[in-house]
Structure formats: structure tokens, C-alpha cells
What we know:
The protein has helices spanning 2-8, 11-29, 31-41, 55-58, 66-87, 89-116, 124-139, 147-157, 164-177, 194-210, 219-238, and strands spanning 182-183, 192-193. With 248 residues, the chain is mostly helical. The protein has a domain at 2-24 and 58-124 and 161-238: Rhomboid-like fold.
Amino acid sequence: MFQRLIQNMPPVVKNLTILCTIIWLAMAFVPVLDNSLTRWCALHYFTSPGFNLAQLFSYMFLHASFAHLFFNMFALVMFGGIIERTMGSQRFLFYYISCGLFAALVQLGAFAVTLSTYHDMFNPEQWNEIINKGWELMQNNYNFADPTLGRINSLVNGPVVGASGAIYGVILAFGMLFPNQPIYLFFIPVPIKAKYMVIGYGLLELSLGLGSVSDNVAHFAHLGGMIAGVALILYWKKKGVFNNHWFF
């Protein structure tokens, strides 16, 4: 059954699922590799000593836990297969990567807004010392005991990983290309139309992102992936790519 499932996947969805799973397994069972990939490939804030441009791409292939990997890959298989067949493999891969890249930029922008509220508390020398010392602490799985310093350090030097931004773009595409398709969700006893599911997810992520409680989830990355998805699909619709499909 599992082999048949893999064989029936379109190529991009299949290869993304396999790649993300292999990377997670490697990180889970080889601690040295886990540390190295997190250091070099997870997304860090622009001013972090650990930041490099490649992270805007590489972060979406890493996952923090099995549950994180499972739910992202489950959504990719459930929604990505039909979207890849609708778009074609090349366009789908471009779409997926674009949503992931824009998700990273939006999340970093959200970090920048939050960090701006702390800048006036410290002079430039103190700020640089916090960032550099905080990076050293993070490499040893520590953080500042002071809540304010710890919050700053988590924003700047904390790693962001996961395909969620790209996955939210895929879910958005499903809702736009197949808006009236009924969807069964675990926590809702009746089916809902795909377009309402997408609207609900978007509003939920916006609410959680603007909330004051930090839950270590990159909600603005999710929104960024959806925003990129809307822009690309509307652009392609204007170009006549999806003339045979209904939209919102």
C-alpha cells in the first residue's frame, strides 16, 4: 500500500516528501549532522552571526520533530498532488519554492517589527554584545535568563525550520483552484468547502501571529506563503493559465 502511494505521487511531490523525510531521519539519528544542518541551513535573522542567504531556501527542507514533518508532508501529499497535476510539475515546483521563499521574508519582516520595539533600550555596542553572546549561548542550547534579552536572542538567533510556509501556499492554491471541493477536517463533523477552509486558516494564522503569546510557531511565514500563492495564481489566471477553473 505504501509503495503504491509513493508510485502514484507526481514527481515533485514525491521527491519533496522523500527529501524532507531523509533529512529529518539524518538529523534525528546523527546528532552532529543535526547541529550542523541547523547551524547552516535553518533560517536565522538577517543580523544573526549564523545568517546566510541560502537559508531563505534551505530552511524549508528541515523540520523540528516527527509531528512537524508528518503534518507538513501529509498536507503536501493530500493537496500537492492534485495541484501539481493541475499546474504541471515545473510550474508547481516554482510555485512551491516561491511560496517558501516569500514566507521566509515575511517572517523575518515580522521579526524586524518586533525587534524594533527593543532597540531603544540599548546602545549599538550593547546590542551587538547581546547578539554575539546570545549566538554563543544558542549553540550550546542555552539562552539569557533575563526575559527581555532571551526574547531578543530567540528572535535573532533562534532557528526557523519547516516547509509550512510553502505548504500553506499549496493549501491556498487548492482553495482557489477548487473552491467548492468539500473538505473533511478532523475537528469539524461536516464537510466544508475548500475556499472556506482557506479563509479560516488565513484568519486563524493572522490572529495567532498578532497575538501576544509566543508559541514558537512562525505564523507570519504561513501567511507569507498564502500571500505569495494568491499573487502567483492571480497572475497566472490573468495570463490564461487556469481558464478552466473557477476562483473565489
